[in-house]
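Structure tokens please, single chain.
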Amino acid sequence: PYIMGHENAGWVEEVGSGVRSVKRGDAVICHPFRSCGICLNCRHGEDMYCDNGQFPGLGMNGGFAEYFITSERSLIKLNANVTPIEVAPLADAGITAYRAAKRAAKLLRPGSYCVLLGIGGLGHIALQ
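Here you go.
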């Protein structure tokens, strides 16, 4: 058995000696898939195809626990005016829409148009 929870955000409790981008007390959101950063797929920017990746709540303990262990690579520090409670649902749906928008942005120029099909939950996030 393991603890569920893949949309994770919270406050950093402790960090390892090599961690540089976050410190104790920082508010963070976690990428929903923990990638290694060293396999060929990760080095090509395809983290979701990581050979050594782990998915919190589906093969390792997730964020419903009181404490959650993850890698520095999986954390995004939040701005001071944003709380983890506000952004936790964006850890999965938000990153899905972000990837699509990021890929589309490479094809767009100022003054061009973009069409969003299926303006459901993910579409609304992408639109913002």
